[in-house]
């Protein structure tokens, strides 16, 4: 019945080309009713290509009624596209802030919107940082903001502005406790950016784990030590401390040793980590030695 109504409205009000677009949209929506992403893409295409308010309303209604997609997500996508086309790029920031303050969507939606705005719409980085700060204050509170600001400042000073997106995405994914998304984000970042960002990812993940498990004060101390002493040494110490505090299994220790060997590539640091792991965590020395030898042979030849 909904399909018939949409076709009748299009035939009466519009020309042949918009009718074809809407019919294709309805067919795709009905056939792929479980794929929310297809629905969002279709809505965006209709809004951008056809650009007719009545048709947009009809498509949104069909999407929400037939497919039962989250109305908030559809509205956010439509509003962002309409604002970009009608009012200009800079107003998207205002829309994002309003959506976050009023609707309070999930972290993943906020990150997706911010990244899309930066990459596609080319909003200045300063504005994006302000938006992220506002989002964090509204959704998470001031306490978490301190951690985010400290991490962003350290990353910008040491690695540049481009890595801030990586840090924000990884922090959001890790805080949401979805390990599968962490792997996807890391793989996408390494493939798309084309740089070995394993050090940055390790630092961010360790910082977030320390925040979640041990508190904000530990992060502040770690950041001070990073600036004053050495970043790699702090990463090693924090990882070992987390392993000791959490009483991790042997595989966790093996992974730590592998990460240290691959990232640092310094025999002296590897020896220190092996000694600490064997003495403090009481792991069997043979296991650690075998892992270190295999990694060194693979990496160094």
UniProtKB/TrEMBL annotation:
It comes from Symbiodinium microadriaticum. The lineage of its organism: Eukaryota, Sar, Alveolata, Dinophyceae, Suessiales. This is Uncharacterized protein. It comes from the Eukaryota. Keywords: Membrane, Transmembrane, Transmembrane helix. The chain crosses the membrane at residues 6-30, 37-63, 69-87, 125-156, 163-190, 196-212, 219-242, 248-265, 272-300.
